[in-house]
Amino acid sequence: MRVHRNEVDGNLKSWNRRMKDDPRSLKNKEDILNPEEHGRHFEALREQRIIELALEHWHNITCLNFVRDDSARSGNRIVFTDVDGCASNVGKHPLGEEQLVSLAPECIRLGVIAHEVAHALGFWHEQSRPDRDQFVNVRWENIDKDSKGQFLKEDPDDVDNAGVPYDYGSIMHYRSKAFSRYDDLYTITTFVSDYQKTIGQRDQLSFNDIRLMNRIYCSNTCGRNLPCQRGGYTDPRKCDRCRCPDGFTGTYCEQVMPGYGAVCGGKVRVSTGWTRISSPGYPNEFKEGQECSWLLTAPPGYIVEFQFMGEFEMYCKVRHSLCMDYVEIRNSTDFANTGMRYCCYGTPQTRIRSATIDMVVLFRSFYRGGKGFEARARALPANGAWNKWTPWTPCTASCGSCGTRMRTRTCAYGACEGEPMETEVCNTQPCTGMCAQKKEETGECGGFLSLLRGIRCKQ
Predict the structure, then answer these.
(1) 4 is in an annotated binding site
(2) Among 49, 61, 138, 310, which one is least packed by beta carbons within 10 Å?
(3) How many folded domains does the chain comprise?
(4) Does the residue 92 lie in any domain?
(5) In this structure, is residue 403 part of a structural domain?
(6) 119 is in an annotated binding site
(7) What is the pLDDT of residues 215-256, one digit of tens each?
(8) Which residues are designated catalytic?
(9) How far apart are CA 405 and CA 34, in angstroms?
(10) Is the pLDDT higher at 195 or at 30?
């Protein structure tokens, strides 16, 4: 959760500085005879260790260093407490005071801690980016009335994306049903539907999360930039190698990552005939922890078409519409971007086409074994033809430039240049008169701008 700066109660729950990191250091008779005290002691040590591991993770992948200082009482620093659920203010305190990161017991997970620390270091939520309306649609009508402020876009003057594109797989992105009025309502939908189960993960920092942090804080760490491939960049922690997107390895990201726990993956050259790939052991079940990475490459002048077939099963959280294990397809021009993740039950029906001669397919099973997947791929001519655009969807607002509309088109054959979807702002005329129903002030049309553009009246 992102919160604005406000007053926080000074009665903070701090780490017990009498405790040593070794539980065997307990020597008082009262400690030995009090099981409840023992339980609190070990739980505090566990929480401290998980926080330290999350900070160590940020340290290992950036130029940032974190030093624990239990003696500090004031000044600019990060203080971990549990006064307000999972929450942090954004960025350095303007008055040089301490930066509070609240971690309630349910927040003591590596991904959640990394998320809140990112806020403290200056990261907004991904869906708060000024350009978010090109990628997702916020369903204001489904959001809990007290939580709508969490979905406002930030002012462009307050955001520096450092040229890193919108990332559906960012650890800073809300899940599909975050802050919904009812559990089954979507509050965020992706314009490209196959990205819907990608958003909201809290397992690990995405490649672009790390890339953005390094661009902001570590751009001058290394003396020279290496000729990294596949969207990689010079690693500020080890300047003699590249930091590579998932699926690639080697000094310059020139190699496909080998399979883990199975012999699978690699570079596969596809032709106009179908080539098949599958999860380890398919149609038998794969094992938990196995990983495979494929780079599918078409001949010059062609692109790759990919299609799932047969039975499909990868573990997901249906309630949150979120992949835990998945098959990820990266088909854009930048393999640093998180791709479309497929999971749950039932064979995906989308025919996926690459933007270039290459396509990356990642199989990741972090949590459970299962049936897995089978798919086929082939090369198609790069010069294709589009079908006609569909009619524009209804505008999401009646006036005041608050609304957007969308239309789509499909590629009739081959590879079609351009985008399969367009969005635009609609109903730009100012709102006039009195609203017959309750007024809503949402998104960029709230506050002062509503006086200029008119308040949005929900029709």
Answers:
(1) no
(2) 49
(3) 2
(4) yes
(5) no
(6) yes
(7) 999 999 999 999 999 999 999 999 999 999 999 999 999 999
(8) 116
(9) 64
(10) 195
